[in-house]
Structure formats: structure tokens, C-alpha cells
Amino acid sequence: MYRHLLVPVDGTLFSETAMRSGVQLAHAMAARVTGLIVEPEASLGSGHSASHYLETLHEHAGQQLRHASQVMSRFAAMAQAQGVPFSGHYVCTGHIEDAIAQIARREGCDLVVMSTHARTGLDGVLKGSRTKGVLARTQLPVLVLR
């Protein structure tokens, strides 16, 4: 049925569920998995010297790259243990949902598998929903895990 799953993750326990479920589903369907971690751009404020800004930006980028590498390494190991073909991607942008939809198109994915934090009330309003944002930006089916 599906041949190529995109599984966006962020390193939380919720995304561990998406990684595990995505790999199991891909294994059952003889599909492959593309893992994606999208880190938000740094928001460093103003009022600092250019050298301080660049130093802080460089440090932040290094932390994000290490985090993404750790998450993708765990994800790749899960896929390898099940014999599922895997590729991992890392993107840094202020438009996370757009990046997920763009990578899905670019990589030729036919299903997006993602977890939701299931935020409700004021928390849901303030932080929004990445899942809803992805649903609004792609024509692909989206499997939402809770």
C-alpha cells in the first residue's frame, strides 16, 4: 500500500512513539522510512554586539546539530534492527510545518507518520499544533499517533 513513509520527529517521548511505530509499519509493508528532524531557527533577541550574536548563533547551531544527530542515530538503529531502509534529514527553519510538507514532496513520500502532543485548552491555542499545520500543507495522508 504505502512504500515510503516520512516520520518527522523532535526527540521527545512522543517522537519515540512515532519512530517505533513508523519502523514497525514500514517493516510490515516492506516500505522505507525517511526520518526528519526540523529544528526552529534561533531567536536571540536584540541589543547585543555582532560578535556576541554570531558566537551565540554558532553555539546554538552546534547544539541543534548534535541533538539532530543523536535522534537520527537512534532512529537509524531502530530501522536497521528491523531491516527497514532508512534515510535521515535535518532542517533548521522558522517554518517547521512547511519544511515537513516540502521534504515529503521532495523525497517522494506517500504517507506522513507523526505523533501529537495532544495539547488542549490554552496550551493548544498558544503553542498550536504542528500536526494541524502539516495537514493544512500537504495532500498526503497523515497517520497521527497519540
What does this structure look like?
- This protein is of the alpha/beta class and 146 residues long.
- It has a single domain (4-145), classed as HUPs (Rossmann fold).
- It contains five helices and five strands.
- A five-stranded parallel sheet has the order 3-2-1-4-5, sandwiched between helices.
- The model has no long low-confidence stretch (mean pLDDT 86).
Summary, kept brief:
With 146 residues, this protein is an alpha/beta fold. 53% of the residues lie in helices and 22% in strands.
Characteristics of this structure?
146 residues, alpha/beta, Rossmann fold, five-stranded parallel β-sheet, 5 helices
List the helices and strands and how they pair.
Elements: E1 4-9, H1 13-29, E2 32-40, H2 50-82, E3 86-93, H3 96-107, E4 111-115, H4 121-127, H5 130-137, E5 142-145
Helix pairs in contact: 1-2, 3-5
Radius of gyration: 16 Å
Mean pLDDT: 86
**How many domain units?**
1
CATH architecture: 3-Layer(aba) Sandwich
Low-confidence stretches: none
How much strand?
A: 15-25%
Classified in CATH, the superfamily is HUPs
Indicate the CATH topology. Rossmann fold
Query: According to CATH, what is the class?
Result: Alpha Beta
What's the story with the biggest beta sheet? 5 strands, parallel
Strand arrangement, major sheet: 3-2-1-4-5
**End-to-end C-alpha gap:** 22 Å
Series of H and E elements: EHEHEHEHHE
| Number of contiguous helices | 5
User: Would you tell me the structural class of the helices and strands?
Assistant: alpha/beta
